[in-house]
Amino acid sequence: AAVQPQAVRTRTAELRDHARTLTPGGVHSNVRLAGPSVFFERGEGAWLYDVDGNGYVDYLLGQGPNFLGHASTRVNDAVARESRRGTIFGGQHVLENEAGELFLDTVGWAERVRFGLTGTEADQVALRLARAATGRTKFVRFEGTYHGWLDNVLVTAVDGKTAPASKGQLAHHLDDTYFLPFNDVDAVAATLSAHDDVAAVIVEPVMCNSAAIMPRDGYLQQLRRLCDRHGIVLIFDEVITGFRLALGGAAERFGVTPDLAVYGKAMAGGWPVSALAGSAALMDMFGGEVNHSGTFNSSVPACAAVIAALTTLREDPPYTRVEDHGMKLMAGIRELALRYDVPMRIQGLPMAFHVSFGDPSPIHDHSGLARLDLTRYAAFAQNLVSHGVWVAPRGIWYVSSAHGDRELAAALERFEAALATGA
Ligand code: PMP
């Protein structure tokens, strides 16, 4: 392979040093501390370009939002055009209805929606609503999922036990949670039988934040049945899966309807919008008894972005294309791993899959991550970045509707060049 590492990053180095004098660690989100520090000039389709002129095939998509590729003309033009009338009024505006109707029609099962800015806050308001509706306090979640960075949800594992992931976090906020292994129906059944204080079960239908672990056949259906039996609110955290696995997200793909679902990332073509959706009976509690607020909720640019992104997805559904690209990419990586005799393992769905080193047998819960060599992959991810493939050190790969044959060829050529330097 003739691809050389794109070694020149002089301007990035200058900007990184400057950034460290302005913002802690030189980054504005701690997630970015883990990655290589690259300053980007612009994104276009499936490509990113850094300030030193290097190009990258992007399989991180800004951590997921750029499902339509970077700088979608249709989305960005709509945002610019609509925002000329102003952005936020402290009252209602017409685009809210249009965005709400389109959103609900696209999701399919939900009757009401509230727009917000981030997945983190939408998760919080989902949990609050579940508590309000049931009069109970606790919730069940699963080891290895991510539901935002706030005190009651941010966790890490210390000696195999769930613990706060940050200094300054109030550890007792985690006391309201039963942490269970994913894909273990009996564990959920036992917990719900033993405790009558559970308001909600919250789940990432595919554990994209944990090696893209798939739900076993029937698992989500059984969660649905258990929640029904115990009068518990089933919350799907579709921040990653929403509009990505299918127009109707994981709910559509797996044929299971939650009571509430949280969306973000792919729903607005790269703009900061999240949503909580659900039945009228639950959601209408926000009409008075339950608080959900936000100065910037449902701004004109947010609604314009949602309308443009969802219209694009509905007019020309990219799912077959994205799936095809992802399948070819996964197969190509597997083939290269074989050829270079490295123990690479890949699992998940073609639109969001996980790459690491280690035992290639599928893993079904978070404890299986112990069989993976995540450190080795993180180092290899750095190598991939220096060869012009923008990926996250934690191993998640996202495919967008802008990825085509040219990107596939470039990505695999660069992947091979990186492998040839050692992994
Ligand atoms: N839930 C899930 C499943 C996520 O993946 C994320 C973000 N990666 C969040 C919630 C939080 O979303 P945000 O970063 O927009 O607050």
Automatic annotation (TrEMBL):
InterPro entries membership: Aminotrans_3, Aminotrans_3_PPA_site, PyrdxlP-dep_Trfase, PyrdxlP-dep_Trfase_major, PyrdxlP-dep_Trfase_small
Reported cofactor(s): pyridoxal 5'-phosphate
Ranges in coiled-coil conformation: none
Keyword Oxidoreductase: no
Superkingdom of source: Bacteria
One function term, GO molecular function aspect: transaminase activity
Keyword terms: Aminotransferase, Pyridoxal phosphate, Transferase
CDD domains according to UniProt: OAT_like
Keyword Transferase (UniProt): yes
PANTHER family referenced in this protein's UniProt entry, alphabetically: GLUTAMATE-1-SEMIALDEHYDE 2,1-AMINOMUTASE, GLUTAMATE-1-SEMIALDEHYDE 2,1-AMINOMUTASE 1, CHLOROPLASTIC-RELATED
Family from the record: Belongs to the class-III pyridoxal-phosphate-dependent aminotransferase family.
Name this protein carries in UniProt: Aspartate aminotransferase family protein
Organism: Phytoactinopolyspora halotolerans
Source organism phylogeny: Bacteria, Bacillati, Actinomycetota, Actinomycetes, Jiangellales
